[in-house]
Every structure is written in structure tokens, then in C-alpha cells.
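Troubleshooting log. The previous run stalled partway through. Resubmitting the same two chains, unchanged.
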Amino acid sequence: MNGTKAIKVVLAKPGLDGHDQGAKVVARALRDAGFEVVYTGLRQTPEAIAKIASDEDAQVIALSSMAGTHLSVCRRLKPLLEQAGLGDRLWIIGGNLPAQDHDTLRELGFRGVFASSSRLEDIIDFIRTNAP
Amino acid sequence: MSKPKPPERQPRRVINESGIEIQPLYTAADVAASGGEDMIGRPGEYPFTRGIHPQMYRKQPWTMRQYTGFGNAADTNQRFHYLIANGQTGLNVAFDLPTQCGLDSDDPQAEGEVGRVGMAIDTLRDFEIAFEGIDLDQITVSLTINGAAAILIAMYLALAEKRGYDLTKLRGTAQNDILKEFVGRGTWVFPVGPSIRLVGDTIEYCAEHAPKYSPVSVCGYHIRESGCDPAQEMAFAFCIARAYADEVIGRGLAVDEFAGRLSFNFNIFGNLFEQVAKFRAGRSLWAKIMKEQYGATQPGSMWLRMIAGGGGGGLTFEQPELNIVRGAYYALISALSGAQTMALCCYDEAFTIPSEYAQRISLRTMQLLIEEMGLTDTVDPLGGSYYVETLTNQMRTRMEEIMREVDAGGGIVRLIADGRIQDRVSAQAYQRQREIDAGTFRKVGVNCYRIEEKPPEMEFHPYREQDAAAQVRALGEVRATRDAAQVAAALARVRADARSGANLMPAIVDAVKAYASVGEITAVLVEVFGRYQEPVALRDEPLAAAGR
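Second attempt completed without errors. Output:
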């Protein structure tokens, strides 16, 4: 972890899902924890997310998914992030994520999986511990 | 298992979510000090605090309208028939996200989303299937649609006309509250200005052609879900309703020509007494606004007709069976509040599209209140309680303060366009999450009375990719068999009317009758109007700061 510069997090809302209460709460919590947060807003395609993460040179790429498309989004995003040279960054996802999908999400490279009702401090601690 | 803290010995301060301090005991003196009994009145009479009708549920219980829709039109039609067979008295239609965002099922952006969180609708053909075998005179239909509302309202009217119903008698509701979509829910399409114009077009068109149809249901509901408090929920909704009223009055309509068909949608989770006071206060405040500020003379124009339901924001992942109990209390709140229509979030809704079983439990919860608990026996049973009357007065005062704050900040339209309401609400949601994490705002099963839990055993709604492919094929068949010249001419008229500023509804109705799709009509409007650009600043200032 870089001790002098704030960890940069790109927090994205993929797809058409409009539930952004949780994403904004997490964005505010990460900002208050001293991270630099780039919140994308709604309706981001996997291509747009990879581009923003690359342009911002983010250490952490975080997704918020509430409407059930998490697996298809992560499957499409994984190769795009790898092609953008972001395979070594920390990828995490939060939202409405059924327990039976957590292993698949981790296998896709999303090391932090935070189902709804996760505590903010747990998300912050995970990033502090695992961000490159 | 964690234990709750022991009760504190010191007298504790209790402040409700709307910021009002609650006393240990209320007497007649508190009612007098909070503003007296002037605003209580009688049900069915101005200011309607106790209810909009003299007899309320003695005459007719609330309409039961569970939010339903998934897969394609045929799947949803089957669930509609199941709910009706189980005693449901209205329908509340859930559309998938592509439909809500004005995209066809074959749009690249729709990949993985077709039929997932609601029913996929591309053309009038889907609507014909969705409502097959349902008598639109007997079962009123509520369409939960906003960004694409003008198109879906047009489809509903076209369907009803095609099936031989008299549009001048047709009842039903569309959500069609785009301003709240910019704050929460997020199914916007066009920029703020053209979005309000479209709402105005639907109100104006329905006032003339379908005068019993409710073209707008103004929602405090989703702003509450996004983080505002109960008093703000109602105050923001009234500010939004005024914006729509101002739009159509600016076109020359008289208030009594349309206000009677404005309806509302509010949330029911939270403290029982605060919620009941919220609804009683809101009813009288809306009546006062319509009478004093807008000069309404018809009682119907002053009525706060509403669906009070949902409650998703109060439900939890932890110990989900407790959501059945929460749902019962929420239904009680709604019944004690004099709602016209009720819907309950299902206990499995934090996880999945509700199962038939979960939907039936929600329906039976409402039926229990009617059949066993005596909630339809008398009007406004909490009326006259020192506590409830005092709190009703205080909540009304608080709502008026918030509305003044919005006006001082530049008005609701500007505050939403600039993202100020969004920032205020998300700052409050963050604060609340901090309190939940710290255990100072209690959630049973979350920060007290926790147990070690395995993932719940429940029926997860399946998502079948092949159904999405079938929907795309069906759309292709409609495109291949419709009259292409008729579609092109209809879309050209939509484009011309969008540019000229004419009411868009006649052109959109013609386009849907020609089987133009939701995505095609939306794309033409986007050519003229452009797309909304979301502000994502996440600021912390109070609303009034925006006005300085």
C-alpha cells in the first residue's frame, strides 16, 4: 500500500439498475475514510467502467449491483479490465448478491464480495488491507 | 448471540426520524400547544385529516395491489390471474429495466436485463398478451413506469380502446413521476425540462380523453427509500406535485380539470405513530395547498388519494422471516392511515423476485386486517388520541418548513436538476447507515438480537436466458409483419411534434397502434430532447445553501 498517496477507488453502477442509495453511501464512507473516490453514476457499460478505471489509474475497482445482473456484468468486465492492464488491481463488488454466487464472483477475480447489509467498516478495512 | 444493552436508568430523549421530540405523555394541552383541533375536522370534509371519504373502509376496503411482473407478458399474465384468484383487487405492473429505460429487448444495453426484474414490453402485442382474460373494468391496473410512461400509457389506452372499453370511463393509474426518478430509482431517459413536458402532455391528454384515468402517481416512496425522513418524504412529493400542476396550469388548464386525478405513493416503514401522523398531516396539508394556493373548488381536487405500501427499506436480509411480521405492522400502519390502496413488499423481496407463496402471504396479511382485526369497522380509529393529534400537527408544521426550505433553495425542479436533493438524501442515508453500524439506530436481527445464520432456504426466482431470446424473436416477428410505412409515418409525426412543442400523446398513441416499439419511439424523442446527464457530486451542504 502506498503510504503517502490516497488509495483511488472507482465505484461504478453497471447496467440499467437504478438503485444507487447503497453505492452513494459506500462512496461517502470511503471518502470519509481518506480514499479518493470516483463515483461513476448510473448506467455504465462494462466498456465504460474499464475505460474510467484505466483513465483514473484506480487501485480499486468497485461495483454496486442490486438488480441481479452481477454475474453477467462481471463475466463481461473481467477480460476488459485485464486487457486494460488492471488485472493486478483490487476488484470488489457489493449489493444484492445471493450467497450461492459468491464463489463464482471470487473466481471471476472479485476478491471482495459484500452482500447487502455489510458493515461500512468491513469494506473500508478490506480495501486498506488488500489494495495494491 | 449478542445481547442488547440493558435499559438506561436516566430519562432518555426520544426524537423521531423527522426530528420531532417525543414526550413521555400527551394531554389535551399538548394538542392545543401544537396548533389545536382546527385541522382535524370530519372525514370526507375539508381539510380531510381523518380521511377523504365520510365512510372510508366501511363502504369499501382498500384496494390490494401487489407489485408484480417478470419474464415475458405470458409469464406475468399467469401471475396476474393467480393473484386475482387469491382475492387481489387491482394490478400493479412491474416492467423490466430495458422497458423502463426506453430500450427494446434487442438493444445491446438490454443484454442480461430482459425480463429480469419485471415484464419485458416492446410493442402493443406484448400488452395484448399481458392483460388477456382480465376485465379492465373490474380490475384497475397501475403501471409502474416513469421514463417511458407516455409510451406505456398510450399502449394501455390503445389496448383498452381495441378491446372496446369506453375511454371516458376507464380507470387506472400510471406512476409517471419522473422528478423522483432523478432522486431515487433512476429510470430517467430525457433531460429534466422535456421530462416535465411529457408528464404535462399525459395529464393534459388524459384530462380530455380519459378523464377517470390517473396519469400521475407522485411518489415520496422512493425518495424515502433513498434516505429522506418521513416529513421530507411528503414535503418533497408535494413540491414535485406542484411542479406538475404548474406545468399544466401554464398551458391553460384549470386546476379542477386535472387535480382530481393526481394520485400519490408513499412508504410505510418506520415508527408506527410517526407514519400515521405523517399521512394524516399530509392529507390536510395537500388539501390546504390545493385550496389556498391553487384555488381548487372541487373536493376531489384537494384529496390526497394514495397508495401507502411497500416498506422495502425497513426489511432485512438477516432473519428474513421477521419481514413477514414487519409486513403485518406496515399493513396496520397503512390501514390506520386511511390509504386507498395497499401493497406490501414480500418477505423474500430482499433476495429475489417474490414467489407465489410470498405474494400470497402478503395478500393474506392485508386480508387478515379486513376479516379478523376490525380495521375496516370505523373511520380513523386513532383520531382523537392526544399523541396522534399532537404529532399530526407537528408533522404538518415540519412539512411546511421543508417546503419553504425547498422554495428558498430555488424550487424543487432546480434542486433536482442540480443534484442537490440527491446529495441531501444520500448524506442522510449515509448518516443512518453509520447509526445502524454503531447500533444507535436499532434494527432487530441486524445490530441487536443477531443469530448465527445460514443462507435462507427460499425459492429463488429463475432467470432464463432463453426467455430473453424468445422475447427478441417475438419483437422481430412484429417488426416483420407490421405496416412499415405506417410505422415510419407515425414516428415522423412523433419527431415533428416533439420539435414543435405540440402535445405528444396523439402522435405516440398512433405510433403504438402501428406497433412501433418502446425503443423506436424513445429513440426518436432522444433525437430531439437528448439524454439526461446525471450530476454525481455527493455534496454535504443544506438545501437552502443552493439558493444563496
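Takeaways: Chain A has one domain: 8-130. Chain A touches chain B at residues 15-21, 24-25, 27-29, 31, 39-43, 45, 67-69, 72-73, 96, 98-100, 115-117, 119-121 (CB under 8 Å).
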